[in-house]
Amino acid sequence: MRKCSDRKKKRQRLIRRLVLFIVVFMLVAGSLAAYHFKQRSIRAEKVDEYHELQQKYADLQKKEQNLKEEIKLLNDDDYILDIARTNYFFSKKGEVIFKNEQKDPSY
């Protein structure tokens, strides 16, 4: 009789240990899975932000190139005179400028 009760107790202890181990394992696995998915979402946000910043950087580089080109043109006296002639009706000696009120050309 004693052997039977000892076996039952050992079996109950084994079952309790296994249940405890499974519960601990599930808690650890669940927390690791939650951490993993959180890190994936953070990484996806960072990748999106990285691509957005790369696009902004490319746009800024183009803008910088255009501004450098404009600086070169503004240092040229002929270009400044052309701007003055077209925008402010600046004329050369002996040149007559006629202002045309029509917005659409007739050609």
TrEMBL record:
Keywords from the UniProt entry: Coiled coil
Coiled coil: 43-77
Signal peptide: none
InterPro entries in the record: DivIC, FtsL/DivIC
Superkingdom of this protein's organism: Bacteria
PANTHER family: CELL DIVISION PROTEIN DIVIC (PTHR40027)
Name by which UniProt lists this protein: Septum formation initiator family protein
The organism's taxonomic lineage, starting at the top: Bacteria, Bacillati, Bacillota, Bacilli, Bacillales
